[in-house]
Amino acid sequence: MLRKIKYPILFQGDLKKKHYFEGWYYKQISQDERRVISFIPGISLFDNDEHSFVQYIFVRMDENNNRITKTGYLRYPLEAFKFKDSPFSVQVGENIFSESMVSVKLLDDEINIEGTLELGDFTPIEKSILMPNIMGFFAYIPKMECYHGVISMNHSLGGILKINNEDVDFTKGNGYIEKDWGTSFPKEYMWIQCNNFKNKTASIFASIADIPFMKKAFRGFICNLSLDGKEYRFATYNNSKLKIDKITDKNVMLSLENSEAILKVEAILKEAGELIAPQKGKMQKVIKEELWGEVKIHLYNKQDYSIYEDVGSMAGIEIVGF
């Protein structure tokens, strides 16, 4: 159990649980920055509806610079789900996801995706006994509604995917991996992710959520910024401060502060695609995810008084219930 907490990429559940979901989120950006695709393999264990699945959201710019978004949810029997811990891999049907590669063969009414991508060295988050993963000490608390893991803040890609008969080259593009497991997504949450900045080492993940806890609820938050080999962590569990300066369906502005830095984050949504999220383990809640958003960051380092500013594109953004 402790190994699973420390390495959240591993399959956290078992196939006998009820009202349980688990899903991995693999995001890939093409080198020319005109294609971005995310895959979400996982399982849903709900009475009379146990199954495995692969979701996708694909956004591209056509020759006229028009943006086209396609999403889909492909169901598979539960028996189609297989996993290994060492070396790690999950398989849903013919689709394989590991720490070194993604191999997909997906076909529905909207899209035909086939090919294999190689994943470069991961950019992991910092860990300790009190912070075994991105959830801090909350990772040790049993029966929480939703657990979260950040696997790689940034990594390089290699390979080609054939998407609707078009060869999309992801070589020298960049990727990101995270995951969720539990019973339900929070009723209110905000999620921001971007690893496509001018500074290629920069990557940010932020989440704010309503968290049920001991028959009550509180608003918790996590923000992790990787930059030039250094990590800035702002979270409920390390006594950081959060202020939501602005929130609309198209724009979010956050202010975060800890003992060493102040971070301003602005996320701009443009056009979201529909995905399916879990409720009590059942994949039934329709949410909207932006995958071509923009994120602006302003970091003030209290220790050396430096200021870092950057603008990222192809950002993942979800705002639910706010």
List keywords for this structure.
322 residues, 1 helix, 2% helix, mainly beta, globular, twelve-stranded antiparallel sheet
Molecular structure report:
One of its GO terms (molecular function) is tocopherol cyclase activity. It holds the Pfam family Tocopherol_cycl. The longest helix is centred in the first third of the chain and has 5 residues, at 2-6. The protein has one domain (19-320). Helices cover 2% and strands 63% of the residues. The strands form 2 sheets. Strands 1, 2, 3, 4, 5, 6, 7, 8, 9, 10, 11 and 12 form a 12-stranded antiparallel sheet that branches. Strands 13, 14, 15, 16, 17, 18, 19, 20, 21 and 22 form a 10-stranded antiparallel sheet that branches. The chain is an all-beta fold and 322 residues long. A hairpin with a 5-residue loop joins strand 21 and strand 22. It contains 1 helix and 22 strands.
Globally, the shape reads globular
Query: In this structure, how is the largest beta sheet organized?
Result: 12 strands, antiparallel
Roughly what is the average pLDDT, rounded to an integer? Answer: 94
Give helix and strand order, one letter per element, not per position.
HEEEEEEEEEEEEEEEEEEEEEE
Brief account:
With 322 residues, the chain is mainly beta. Helices cover 2% and strands 63% of the residues.
Question: How are the secondary structure elements laid out?
Answer:
Blueprint: H1 2-6, E1 20-29, E2 35-45, E3 51-61, E4 67-77, E5 81-85, E6 88-92, E7 95-98, E8 101-107, E9 112-119, E10 146-163, E11 166-169, E12 174-182, E13 189-194, E14 203-213, E15 216-227, E16 230-235, E17 241-247, E18 251-257, E19 261-268, E20 272-279, E21 282-301, E22 307-320
Antiparallel strand pairs: 1-2, 1-12, 2-3, 3-4, 5-6, 6-7, 7-8, 8-9, 9-10, 10-11, 10-12, 13-14, 13-22, 14-15, 15-16, 17-18, 18-19, 19-21, 20-21, 21-22
